[in-house]
Amino acid sequence: MSYDSNNIFAKILRGEVPCHKVYEDEHTLAFMDVMPQADGHTLVIPKMSSRNLLDAEPKALGSLMTSVHKVANAVKQAFGADGMLIQQFNEAAAGQTVFHLHVHVLPRHEGRPLRPHTGRMADHAVLAQHAERIRAALGAGAE
Ligand code: 5GP
After folding, report:
1. Using a 6 Å cutoff on CB, does residue 31 contact ligand 1?
2. pLDDT per residue over 66-125, tens digit each?
3. Among candidates 49, 56, 20, 51, which has minimal Cα distance to 35?
4. Please, which pLDDT band fits residue 140 given cuts at 50, 70 and 90?
5. What is the 3 state secondary structure string of the chain?
6. How many CB atoms lie within 10 A of CB 130?
7. What is the pLDDT of residue 141?
8. Any catalytic annotation for residue 69?
9. Over the stretch 124-136, which tens digit does the pLDDT of each residue have?
10. Is there an atom of ligand 1 within 6 Å of 33 CB?
């Protein structure tokens, strides 16, 4: 299956749709998931186009994982998480709903279940506040 450049993350990358950005560099962008499964649920995407991991250029993966590493440590610190879940789905049969490669960064706390995948839309003011907490942790050098 081919890449559709009208997917929502491609629109975010082009600046056509807003997002609560937490991190950006030459190759990657990280922003808040609008239907967070936990407070602090962040998505990290490569700027290079691919549906998912399977059709990605291998050269896009190093910078993607470097950003996942950086953002995961910042989210862990910002939300006082006990652990971090790093998740990535490939094709609809595996749970993928947006077809631009992305990695989920989810803070986990002992005994606190996740909310459903693509469940309820979060309040934008709350997402903005959460993004600010993560940016502050990044600024403080959490990695
Ligand atoms: P997937 O199921 O493809 O791994 O996950 C797609 C994720 O993107 C879901 O967790 C969903 O909540 C999130 N999502 C869907 N639409 C938007 C959007 O317009 N903006 C943002 N920031 N996240 C979105």
Report:
1. yes
2. 999 999 999 999 999 999 999 999 999 999 999 999 999 999 999 999 999 988 999 999
3. 20
4. confident
5. CCCCCCCHHHHHHCCCCCCCEEEECCCEEEEECCCCCCCCCEEEEECCCCCCCCCCCHHHHHHHHHHHHHHHHHHHHHHCCCEEEEECCCCHHHCCCCCCCCEEEEEECCCCCCCCCCCCCCCHHHHHHHHHHHHHHHHCCCC
6. 22
7. 80
8. no
9. 999 999 999 999 9
10. yes
CA distance 46 to 27: 6
Tokens of 47: 């700027």
Atom 11 of ligand 1, nearest CA residue: 118
Distance CA 101, CA 3 (A): 10
Q: Which two tokens stand for residue 72?
A: 């995961």
88 CB near ligand 1 (under 6 Å): no
